[in-house]
Design goal:
This protein is 54% helix and 17% strand. By secondary structure, the chain is an alpha+beta fold. It is rod-shaped.
């Protein structure tokens, strides 16, 4: 399964239904997500492609003693339709959206609500490819509330409006990891961090390899330019006009076309360092360019 599916499975199998306030708030999180719609004045429909989600949602309904519901499937989508009468004391309907009358302020209540929103309409990319987690709600106030509360727990997120819904998203690995821990997905956090460490190590290795390759190409290109300059001087009969130091390093370069400057300088009768060898070869190139 994908990382996103594994995360949904982990969250949906959380069995802590003892605290009714937390159960109710996670349930309300589902309701204010963008996958919920009002069918009429009496019914609410929640839809998802995740079997784990639909099972979790049905357990929340039962725990809240909402037994008048039906589960169906349409293609790859599962849905639950239930009577809204029992929940209208704590939520209200406006513009065909479910809205909370009062947003929670206690930490455990906030976590339960946001976990419900994520389960209701959230997704996360495979961290092996890129870091991106998002969840959607239907109203601006709910999106602002979620973003503000996440920030209180040092989780930075952004919100965009698209097609009459608001998407809260995180694009940094550190933020995604903190969010997963925030909603109680401990197993997924461990897996995410393992992937993140491996990915960062791979990126570091790739940067080093690319740097080495770039340096090698630079060295090769410089050596080719030097050899071409020396050959040009020979063809123009100007080579013998060079002073002895330049002649000596020119001959050393022709005999050792791939040798780094540090080693090339050590082959001379009076060894010089990298900068000395580089200076002499640059002088040869300049003389050749003036012809």
């Amino acid at each position: 399964m994908s990382f996103s599916s594994d995360l949904k499975e982990e969250l949906s199998k959380k069995v802590k239904f003892v605290n009714e306030d937390l159960v109710r708030l996670e349930f309300f999180g589902y309701l204010i997500s963008s996958n919920t719609c009002i069918l009429n004045s009496e019914k609410i429909k929640y839809s998802t492609e995740s079997e784990y989600n639909i099972n979790r949602f049905s357990k929340l309904l039962e725990r809240l003693d909402i037994k008048d519901y039906s589960i169906g499937v349409s293609g790859k989508t599962f849905f639950i339709i239930f009577d809204m009468e029992k929940i209208l004391g704590e939520v209200y309907i406006e513009d065909n959206k479910v809205l909370l009358k009062d947003n929670p302020e206690k930490e455990e209540n906030i976590k339960a609500l946001i976990r419900g929103i994520y389960l209701g309409a959230g997704s996360v990319n495979n961290p092996e490819s890129k870091y991106h987690l998002e969840m959607s709600v239907l109203d601006k106030k709910s999106a602002q509330y979620v973003q503000e509360k996440l920030l209180e727990f040092s989780i930075n997120s952004k919100t965009i409006e698209d097609k009459k819904e608001y998407t809260i998203y995180l694009k940094e690995g550190e933020e995604v990891s903190k969010f997963l821990a925030f909603i109680g997905a401990s197993k997924s956090v461990l897996r995410f961090e393992e992937i993140r460490v491996q990915r960062e190590m791979n990126n570091k290795v790739n940067r080093l390899v690319n740097c080495e390759a770039a340096n090698l190409n630079k060295t090769i290109n410089a050596a080719v330019e030097q050899i071409e300059a020396i050959e040009k001087l020979k063809k123009s009969k100007k080579f013998d006009n060079l002073d002895d130091n330049l002649k000596e390093i020119a001959i050393a370069r022709l005999e050792n076309p791939n040798m780094p400057l540090v080693q090339l300088g050590q082959t001379l009768s009076t060894p010089v360092g990298k900068s000395g060898a580089n200076y002499r070869l640059k002088k040869i190139v300049e003389i050749a360019n003036e012809l």
